[in-house]
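Usage

Read records sequentially. Each one opens with the input sequence:
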Amino acid sequence: MGDTLLALSVPVLVLAAGIHAGCETWWRRRIPAPPSLYTHQAARLADRETVAAAEEIVDGAYATLKGFYGVSETTVPGMGATSVPGAPGFTPGAVASPGHGRSQPASARRG
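and closes with the structure output:
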C-alpha cells in the first residue's frame, strides 16, 4: 500500500503544480502588478542629485586647497596656459600638421 501511495503522489503533485501555475497566470493577467516606483524619471533625478553632490564636494575641496596651488580667485588658467611662470603654453595649432593628407614618415633612427 505504501508503494502505491508513493507512486500516485507524484502525478498528483505534478497536476497540482500545473493547476497552480495556470491559476497564477490567469490571476496575473486579470490583475497586473502596479508600476515600478523606480522609473526613468526617478533615475534622472537621482543622477542630478549625485552630480550636484559631487559638484559641492569638488567646489569645497578646491576652496580649501586653492592656497596650495597659488591661484587667486580671479585668475584661472585657461586652455593652453600653464601655472608655471615663464613656461610657454601648449598651442595645438602650432604642433599640428599643415595639411589634411597623410604626414611624412619619420626618419629611421639608427644607433
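Summary fields computed downstream for this record:
- The two ends are 96 Å apart (CA to CA).
- Residues 82-87 have pLDDT under 50 and may be disordered.
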